[in-house]
Q: What sequence folds into this?
């Protein structure tokens, strides 16, 4: 009798623990969804207003706040950015900003370059390459901002 | 427009594509490249980047889906607000003059680059 009573108590605390964990998980998921929505809005604004850069907001958000692995974060970011680019691209084209004579050769180049880039990804993407690249981009940014 | 010009444009695409494929943000290369060296207006450069990203992204996505690298959990909470913001961004860009938009883009690019440099250097300290 005594033993079974003790077991029952254990079961109760176990049950409580599970409930607390479930509540905690739910709050955690809610929090994560709010973070996700904020990052989504930021990436969407960048995508619509600047025509790109959304991935550079989504990827760090996925790795730091949602604790996803870098590979998963990159793949998931494409899944998130693709519908945004589709919508923005349609709006830009509808507003008459797309130029086929430039768009076709550039697009063909992007595909060819993209395949090549994916192949050399593992060989070159050390953090120094990233830092060097970012520095060049910072200079480009300053030039566009000021001149 | 002659053939040389087409090849010249394709070269810009290749540069953007290589860096995009390496995961360093293709748009952040292609747009400044077209804007600074090709004298394409900011709006057109952005439109070209958005549209040329689509076929590349579809190919990459198919490969990632096959390798089960895409995590769909909670993804709609990111995409749906993002799409609304997207449309808003498009309309804001539309009413902006190309030069003003170019300067704003420059500021945005500078911010992203500084962020990337800082995180890149931090990683080094950890190791």
A:
């Amino acid at each position: 009798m005594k033993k079974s009573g003790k077991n029952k108590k254990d079961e109760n605390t176990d049950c409580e623990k599970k409930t607390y964990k479930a509540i905690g998980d739910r709050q955690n998921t809610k929090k994560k969804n709010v973070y996700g929505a904020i990052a989504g809005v930021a990436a969407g604004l960048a995508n619509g207003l600047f025509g790109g850069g959304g991935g550079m907001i989504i990827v760090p958000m996925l790795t730091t706040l949602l604790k996803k692995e870098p590979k998963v974060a990159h793949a998931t970011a494409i899944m998130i950015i693709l519908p945004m680019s589709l919508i923005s691209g349609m709006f830009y084209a509808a507003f008459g900003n797309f130029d086929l004579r430039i768009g076709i050769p550039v697009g063909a180049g992007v595909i060819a370059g993209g395949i090549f880039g994916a192949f050399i990804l593992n060989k070159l993407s050390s953090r120094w390459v990233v830092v060097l690249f970012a520095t060049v981009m910072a200079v480009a940014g300053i030039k566009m901002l000021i001149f | 427009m002659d053939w040389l010009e087409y090849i010249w444009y394709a070269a810009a695409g290749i540069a953007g594509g290589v860096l995009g494929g390496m995961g360093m943000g293709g748009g952040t290369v292609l747009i400044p490249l077209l804007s600074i060296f090709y004298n394409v207006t900011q709006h057109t450069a952005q439109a070209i980047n958005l549209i040329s990203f689509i076929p590349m992204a579809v190919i990459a996505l198919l490969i990632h889906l096959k390798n089960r690298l895409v995590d769909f959990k909670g993804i709609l909470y990111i995409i749906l607000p993002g799409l609304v913001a997207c449309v808003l961004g498009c309309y804001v860009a539309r009413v902006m003059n190309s030069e003003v938009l170019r300067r704003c883009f420059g500021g945005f690019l500078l911010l992203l680059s500084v962020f990337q440099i800082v995180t890149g250097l931090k990683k080094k300290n950890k190791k």
Observations:
- Helices of chain B lie at 3-21, 27-37, 42-66, 76-95, 98-126.
